[in-house]
Amino acid sequence: MKRFLALFCALFMISTFAFADDDIDITDDIDQGESEESADDVTIKTSVNMNEPGDQYIRIGLMATFPLNFGGSFPLYRNGQLSIGGAGMLGYHRFITSWWALGVDVFFGYHPTIGENIFTYIPLMIDTTFQPTFKRLEFPITLGVGAAMENYLSRTYFPGLILKGQAGVYFRATPSWSFGMEGDFMFMPQWYDNPKYNDYGVFASWALAARYHF
């Protein structure tokens, strides 16, 4: 009987240690699995693009605008028909893919004239933007077309065609805000029944802008 009890105790101790080893192995496996899942999460998070389809942003900015074909000389063009002017801009854009967005922009621009009057224009534009990224930098390249209301003294020209090409660089400071600069060219022709009054305005602009992403 004593031998039976001793054998039973020995078997019990051996089985206890065996289960304990199994528990340790299982725990190790769980820890290893969690580590692998965490690594997968890091991989997934780092592979996500800065912008995804459906993301949107609102852009605001201030521009210095240069009249390129109205006479005068860089940078102020004071001895030409128009002097250097400025503009404010506001736009809304939505990403269709990670790199491509569609949007609408509105500007309010002005230029002093040689006679100390003011030429103003308010374009409303539809544009498309291709935007490659590198780390936290974004490089929007935009083409736009629209109509502008143009005014000088008591004369108003509407609708005036406006074409725009633009490129810029932005730094994504936070997930919601990016800040940068842009340069663009605008073509603003005026066509009349009498061709001798036709005009073809070409303007270059330099802008500081901010974008709110949501």
Strand order of the largest sheet: 1-2-3-4-7-8-9-10
- What are the secondary-structure elements, in order, as H or E? HEEEEEEEEEE
Broad structural category: alpha+beta
Termini Cα gap: 80 Å
* Overall form: elongated
Share of β-strand residues: over 45%
What is the residue-averaged pLDDT?
83
Enumerate the spans where pLDDT stays under 50 for 5 or more consecutive residues.
Answer: 1-47
Rg, nearest Å = 33 Å
Largest sheet: 8 strands, antiparallel, barrel
What's the total count of β strands?
A: 10
Descriptive report:
This protein is an alpha+beta fold and 214 residues long. 21% of the residues lie in helices and 52% in strands. It is built from one helix and ten strands; from the N terminus they run αββββββββββ. It has one helix spanning 2-47, and strands at 56-67, 85-95, 100-112, 118-130, 133-134, 137-138, 141-152, 155-172, 177-190, 199-213. Strands 1-2-3-4-7-8-9-10 form an eight-stranded antiparallel beta barrel. The longest helix is centred in the first third of the chain and has 46 residues, at 2-47. It is elongated and about 50 Å long. It starts with a helix and ends with a strand.
Short description:
The protein is of the alpha+beta class.
Which keywords apply here?
alpha+beta, 1 helix, 10 strands, 21% helix, elongated, disordered N terminus
Helix/strand layout:
Blueprint: H1 2-47, E1 56-67, E2 85-95, E3 100-112, E4 118-130, E5 133-134, E6 137-138, E7 141-152, E8 155-172, E9 177-190, E10 199-213
Antiparallel strand pairs: 1-2, 1-10, 2-3, 3-4, 4-7, 5-6, 6-8, 7-8, 8-9, 9-10
